[in-house]
Design brief:
There is one protein chain. With 284 residues, the protein is an alpha/beta fold. It has one domain: 3-Layer(aba) Sandwich (Arginase, Chain A), CATH 3.40.800.10. It has helices at 41-49, 81-97, 112-122, 151-159, 174-182, 194-200, 233-237, 240-245, 267-283, and strands spanning 3-4, 21-26, 55-56, 61-62, 68-74, 102-106, 127-131, 164-167, 186-188, 206-211, 250-256. The strands form 2 sheets. A 9-stranded mixed beta sheet has the order 1-5-2-6-11-10-7-8-9, with helices on both faces. A two-stranded antiparallel ribbon has the order 3-4. Helix 4 links the parallel strand 7 and strand 8 (164-167). Helix 1 packs across helix 9, helix 2 runs parallel beside helix 3 and helix 3 runs parallel beside helix 4. Bound molecules: manganese (II) ion.
Amino acid sequence: MKLKSNIKFVGTSGNFKKSDLIICGIPYDITSTFRHGSQKAPDSIRKYSDSIETFSPIQEKDLIDYNIFDSGNIIFPSKIPKHAMKKIEKYTYDFINRNKRILYIGGEHLITLPIVKKYYEKYKDLKVIYFDAHADMRMHYDGNKFSHATVARRIVEMIGAKNIFMFGIRSFEKEEYNFIKKNKIFCDYGHSKFKFVIEKLKDSHVYISLDLDVFDPSCFPGVGNPEAGGIFFNDFIKLLPYISSIKQNIVSLDIVELMPDYDLSGNSSIFAAKIIRELILSLL
Ligand SMILES: [Mn+2]
């Protein structure tokens, strides 16, 4: 396993073997179209995580009371999507074999596809909770089958239309919109049906993918494709008890699409770090 990063997420320590949860950075951003920069996200989040406390007053838990291991970043000698996805699959497979739960930090949203592929090979009942501003349901994008804008479509082809649950989606191309309607894919404009969905997933293995552009650009401007009308930090925090209620079922999760350079104040990176702290603690 070759991973690399000189900075670690606040409150992480210990070693791989003893860890309750592992952080893995996936600094890959090639297929983004409008603008780039999410390859800088894992280390930016780590750096800015130093400004937050390890203790969560919301959950009354502290990161330092658990063994959380920050494994660094996957290195991509070849940026070609096909090669990069194989590499991500290899690491995911290894983590699964070692029985470890991972919080993957992207990178662009395409990284979710090889990860979900490996979990689906292991857990045939896998359900995916997908937070995003955009539907990501295009058949092709710019001639590419594999792109940040086609991820959800490829996931649906793999796990089936009834096994994905989308929240915060407020931007569609007409064909994506019709595809979602026609296939009766669960797609919530906000998050009002989150509790209802979680109750349905009590007996399944669940993977969570969080595209940070689900948040409103007024509180989270550091993304490639900002989309007005999103959720806020306090909205997301209210979902944590539900996530926690099925924590045994959650196989792993990812956080993608932060572009630190589009928010030079650092606020978006700090916001992402706080979301990560809360998500990790909700699973432990
Ligand atoms: Mn996305």
